[in-house]
Design goal:
heterodimer, A: 286 residues, mainly alpha, MetI-like fold, 12 helices, 77% helix, B: 266 residues, 11 helices, globular
Chain lengths: 286, 266
C-alpha cells in the first residue's frame, strides 16, 4: 500500500513534467525524426534511396568535403594552439589569471556569428588595418595570396571561437596532472621532453581528443559566420541546407533531408566519441 | 624555468591581441570617418550611429529581437524551470532523460532544426511565424537554462531539505517559496540572461524560419555588411555592447552566488 501511494504520487509529479515533454516532442524530437524519415522518401511519397545516392554528385561531395576539411583544420589548430595557450595560463599559477581568462572568454563568446565575421572583414579585408600594418611594418603583402572572403579567411575567423572553447576544456586537465608525477620523473633523471613524451602527453591524450571532437562538431554546425564571410561562394553543408530552407537554389529539396540526416549522424558520432574520451580522461581528475 | 616565462608571455599576448583587436577595430570603425587607406582613421564622427537610428528598419528589428528574446525567456521559465525543479525534488529517475533531452539541441545544427520545423509545421497559422521562431529559439536555448538551474538545484540538497521541512510541518509550496526559490534565484537569473543574450544574437533561426516576414536585429546587421559597412559596424557595436553588459551581469551574479553558496556550505 505504501509503495502504491508512492507510485501514485510519483505519477502525479510525472504529470507535471508533461508540458515540458510535450514541447520537446513537438518541437524537437518529432520534427527531427520526420526529417530522417523524409530522407528515405521521394516528394511523391515512395520509398527510395535516391536522396542518398544523389549525395554522390560532385556538388554535394564538395560541400561535405569543404565542411569536414574546415572543421578538421580549425579543430586541429584549435586543439594544438589552445593547449599551448591553456598550458601558459596554467603555468602562470595564479588564481587571478585563471579567473581573468574565464571572464575574458565569457565576454568574447558574445562576439560571434555576423559581428565576428564583419570584424575580420574590417581588419583583414583588402584595405583592413591589419593588412595595412603587415604591408607597412613588415613589408608583407597579404593580398591577393590571402583573402578574408575565402577558405583561409574562414579558418582565421573560426579559430576565434575555437580557441577559447579548447582552453576552457583543457585547463582542468592541466590541473589534473599532478606536480608529484613531474617531480618523480625528474628525480629519476627524465628530461622535460621525456616527461611529456612518456607521461604528460599520454595522460592528456583522451582530453585532447575530447576537445578535438567537440571543436569539430562546433565548427561543423556553424552557419552565420560562414554565410556572412563567404555567402554562396564556398559550399558548406550548412549553407546548402540553408539554401533549401530559404528556397534560393533550385535543386531537389528532398536531398536536404539526406544531407541533414548525414550531418546528424556526424554530430551524434562526435558526441559519442566525446563521451568515451571523457571517461578515459577521468583518470586525470584524482 | 626562468627562460620559459618570456616565451609564454609573448604567446599569451599574441592570443590576447587576436581576441581583442577585432572587437576594438569594430568600435573604432563605427566612429571613423574613413578607415581604409591609413593606419589610423582619417577623423571621427557619430554620423553612422545617426544613420543607423534613422533607418526605418532599426526600430522594427530591434523591437522584434527584444520581444523574441523576452518570449523565449518566458517560455524557458514556464517549461524548463518547473520541469528541472520537479525532476530534482521528486523524480530523480527523470533526471537522466531530462539531461539527454536538454543536451540534444547541442547536437542539432541550427540549420537542421530550422529545416525540421519548417518541414513539419506547414499549417498557415504557425508556418514560418514568429511563434514558430519562439519555439525554435526555446529548443535551442533550453540547455543554457536547464544547466544553470540544474546546477543551482544540485548545490542545495533538495531531498533532505524537503524531508526536514516536512517533518516540521511545512508544505511543499512553503518550502518552494521560502527555501528553494531564494536558493535557486541566482541560477534562474543567470540562465535567463544567458538565454536573452543568445537570442539577441541569434541569426540562423530567424533568417531561415521567418526570413523577411519578421526581421531581427542580427538579420539587419548581415544585410548591412553587404550594403554599408559603416552602419554595419554601428549595429555590431550596439549588439556587442548590450551582450557585454549582460554577460558582465551574469559574471557578477555568479560570483555573488558562489560566495553565498560558499558561506552556507561552510
Amino acid at each position: 500500500m505504501q509503495s502504491s501511494r508512492v507510485r501514485r504520487r510519483s505519477f502525479r509529479y510525472a504529470v507535471l513534467l508533461f508540458p515540458f515533454l510535450i514541447f520537446c516532442l513537438a518541437f524537437e524530437i518529432v520534427p527531427i525524426l520526420v526529417v530522417v524519415k523524409n530522407s528515405f522518401f521521394t516528394s511523391a511519397g515512395a520509398v527510395t534511396l535516391r536522396n542518398y545516392t544523389g549525395l554522390g554528385s560532385v556538388f554535394y561531395v564538395l560541400s561535405f568535403w569543404n565542411s569536414i576539411r574546415l572543421s578538421s583544420i580549425t579543430a586541429l589548430l584549435g586543439t594544438v594552439l589552445g593547449s599551448f595557450i591553456g598550458y601558459s595560463i596554467h603555468m602562470a599559477r595564479s588564481k587571478r589569471m585563471h579567473e581573468l581568462f574565464v571572464a575574458f572568454s565569457n565576454v568574447t563568446t558574445n562576439f560571434a556569428g555576423a559581428p565576428l565575421a564583419f570584424a575580420f572583414i574590417i581588419i583583414l579585408g583588402a584595405n583592413g588595418v591589419v593588412t595595412l600594418l603587415f604591408a607597412r611594418l613588415l613589408g608583407l603583402q597579404l593580398y591577393p595570396g590571402f583573402q578574408i572572403y575565402s577558405y583561409a579567411g574562414l579558418v582565421v575567423a573560426y579559430l576565434y571561437f575555437q580557441l577559447p572553447l579548447m582552453i576552457l576544456l583543457i585547463l582542468p586537465s592541466f590541473s589534473g596532472l599532478q606536480a608529484e608525477w613531474r617531480e618523480a620523473a625528474t628525480s629519476m633523471g627524465a628530461s622535460t621532453w621525456q616527461y611529456w613524451r612518456h607521461i604528460g602527453l599520454p595522460l592528456l591524450t583522451p582530453s585532447l581528443f575530447a576537445g578535438f571532437v567537440l571543436l569539430f562538431a562546433n565548427a561543423y554546425g556553424a552557419y552565420a559566420t560562414a554565410y556572412t564571410l563567404v555567402g554562396a561562394k564556398l559550399m558548406l553543408v550548412t549553407t546548402q541546407i540553408a539554401f533549401v530552407v530559404t528556397g534560393e537554389v533550385l535543386h531537389d529539396p528532398a536531398i536536404a533531408n539526406s544531407i541533414a540526416t548525414v550531418s546528424l549522424i556526424i554530430m551524434a558520432l562526435c558526441i559519442v566519441l566525446y563521451r568515451v574520451a571523457l571517461t578515459r580522461a577521468r583518470g586525470l581528475k584524482v | 624555468m626562468k627562460r620559459r616565462v618570456p616565451a609564454m608571455v609573448v604567446f599569451l599576448s599574441l592570443f590576447a591581441a587576436y581576441m581583442v583587436v577585432p572587437i576594438v577595430a569594430t568600435y573604432v570603425f563605427s566612429i571613423a570617418v574613413r578607415w581604409d587607406r591609413t593606419i589610423l582613421p582619417e577623423g571621427y564622427t557619430l554620423q553612422w550611429y545617426a544613420d543607423m537610428i534613422r533607418h526605418p528598419y532599426f526600430a522594427i528589428t530591434l523591437r522584434n529581437s527584444l520581444s523574441l528574446a523576452v518570449y523565449t525567456v518566458g517560455a524557458n521559465l514556464l517549461l524548463v524551470v518547473p520541469a528541472a525543479y520537479i525532476a530534482h525534488a521528486f523524480l530523480p529517475a527523470a533526471k537522466v532523460p531530462m539531461d539527454i533531452v536538454t543536451i540534444f539541441p547541442f547536437a542539432i545544427p541550427r540549420v537542421v532544426l530550422a529545416l525540421a520545423l519548417v518541414t513539419v509545421f506547414t499549417v498557415p497559422f504557425i508556418a514560418r511565424s514568429p511563434l514558430l521562431l519562439v519555439c525554435a529559439c526555446t529548443v535551442f536555448t533550453m540547455p543554457y537554462m536547464y544547466r544553470t538551474v540544474a546546477n543551482s538545484l544540485e548545490a542545495i540538497d533538495l531531498r533532505t531539505l524537503n524531508d526536514a521541512a516536512q517533518l516540521q510541518g511545512a508544505s511543499t509550496l512553503q518550502i518552494l517559496i521560502h527555501i528553494v526559490g531564494p536558493n535557486i534565484m541566482n541560477g534562474i537569473v543567470s540562465g535567463s540572461l544567458l538565454v536573452f543574450s543568445a537570442i539577441m544574437a541569434e541569426y540562423t533561426l530567424a533568417r531561415l524560419i521567418t526570413g523577411a516576414r519578421f526581421k531581427t536585429f542580427p538579420v539587419l546587421l548581415v544585410e548591412f555588411t553587404r550594403r554599408d559597412g559603416r552602419i554595419a559596424s554601428a549595429i555590431s557595436v550596439l549588439a556587442f555592447t548590450v551582450a557585454l553588459l549582460l554577460s558582465l551581469t551574469i559574471i557578477a551574479a555568479a560570483r555573488r552566488g558562489s560566495r553565498s553558496g560558499g558561506t552556507s556550505g561552510g
